[in-house]
Amino acid sequence: MNIYKLGEITDKEAALNKLGVESGGISIMAKKMELMYFYIKDLKAPAANILKQDALSIGAELAVPGGVILCDKPTYDCILIGTKKHIEILSRKELAQPFGLKALAGELKKFLSSNSFPTRIMGIINANDDSFFEGSRFVAGDAVTQCEKMIADGASIIDIGAVSSRPGAKEVSGEEELERIKPICDAIHDQKLYEKALFSIDSYTPSVVEYSLRSGFGLINDITGAADEKIIELALQYNAKLCIMHMQGTPVSMQKDPHYEDVTAEVSTFFEDRIAKCEAMGLSREQIILDVGIGFGKSLEHNLALLKNMNHFTHFGCEVLIGASRKSMISKIIPTPTEERLPGTLILHLKAVENGASIVRCHDVAEHKQALAVQEALRS
């Protein structure tokens, strides 16, 4: 007899099926193989004690600070640990409990019913001369050629913007932005490139967004995350998707001492508010994409926390986008010029996909296509 310890099994049902497990037992066993962790903030002391006992009774665990049993404080932060099966049981069991546990059960159910989306690559093209990575700058005919190359390399989405959003970037008038983007939009429309890929307009200026949508674009990438009513109306009018990004401050000021009590919780609350506004106006969650805004009003610590907790944002039922391509957070880990940050970019993006992101916004499409293919092979 030989025995060896298995590494992480990503596709648990496929592994059990390959082993020859009876079909009826595969889904049951797969749930027992998936360990889940939930950080619960400000749980009422009585609720913490109830949840602790309920978790232990089914073989799960609730990590709590000392003093919880005595209710020394009114609320406590806790970590709930259990298999997917355990969480399913608790999400039903706590519906009958007081002290806010019914609401907790509802939140747990959302995480259990998260949608799964295929991984897609979004290529970046900047129709301006001051974006932080020189290799992404293209104009008119050159931009169209680059679009075609990115599509051939494996991009199913092309994101085009005419205004730099790098830290400290100067504001550009709507008229100038439209003048920069028009030739590219016209070429995409005339050559019907929108039939080959989904085109995204990286803008929050209504006139620019509308011109792009009329030219065949199908996604609005709004870095302000404001969910402006005019932008939502345009998304509805043209049946387009809307990407909502979180940013603290503006590009001019966003990196001047960004501060959060809990970055994951605060970004999550931001998305919850914006999604509610979009839905109230008629936009469905299938049309909404969420971007945590790596580098937009965040320190290195904030960026890393969001990447590690990327899976949290999947519970909204929207696609989640990651955009850390060649960003300065890499240089803060190990000093590296922008042109040499591809290795760090690939690591960040692969980890984000592993943690739930489904759209990868990047400058280097072919390299990401290869890396994602290898990652997928390791999963199977």
Give the structure's gist in a few sentences.
This protein has 380 residues and is of the alpha/beta class. It contains 14 helices and 11 strands.
Chain-wise SSE layout:
Elements: H1 12-19, H2 23-33, E1 35-44, H3 45-57, E2 61-63, E3 75-83, H4 84-93, H5 101-112, E4 120-126, H6 140-153, E5 157-161, H7 174-190, E6 198-202, H8 206-214, E7 219-222, H9 229-237, E8 241-245, H10 263-280, E9 288-291, H11 300-308, E10 319-322, H12 328-333, H13 342-354, E11 359-362, H14 365-379
Parallel strand pairs: 4-5, 4-11, 5-6, 6-7, 7-8, 8-9, 9-10, 10-11
Antiparallel strand pairs: 1-3, 2-3
Please state the structural category.
Answer: alpha/beta
CATH superfamily membership of the largest domain: Dihydropteroate synthase-like
The biggest sheet, with number of strands, parallel, antiparallel or mixed sense and barrel status, is: 8 strands, parallel, barrel
Q: What is the rounded distance between the termini?
A: 25 Å
Tell me the overall shape. globular
Radius of gyration over all CA atoms, rounded? 23 Å
Secondary structure tally: strands: 11
Low-confidence stretches: none
- The share of residues in helices is 40-55%
For this structure, what is the CATH class of the largest domain? Alpha Beta
Instruction: Estimate what percentage of residues fall within beta strands.
Output: 15-25%
CATH fold topology of the largest domain: TIM Barrel
Order of helices and strands: HHEHEEHHEHEHEHEHEHEHEHHEH
User: Strand order, biggest sheet?
Assistant: 4-5-6-7-8-9-10-11
- Structural domains: how many: 2
CATH architecture term of the largest domain? Alpha-Beta Barrel
The mean pLDDT is 91
Oligomer class: single chain
Pfam families: Pterin_bind
GO molecular function, one term: dihydropteroate synthase activity
Catalytic activity: (7,8-dihydropterin-6-yl)methyl diphosphate + 4-aminobenzoate = 7,8-dihydropteroate + diphosphate
Pathway: Cofactor biosynthesis; tetrahydrofolate biosynthesis; 7,8-dihydrofolate from 2-amino-4-hydroxy-6-hydroxymethyl-7,8-dihydropteridine diphosphate and 4-aminobenzoate: step 1/2
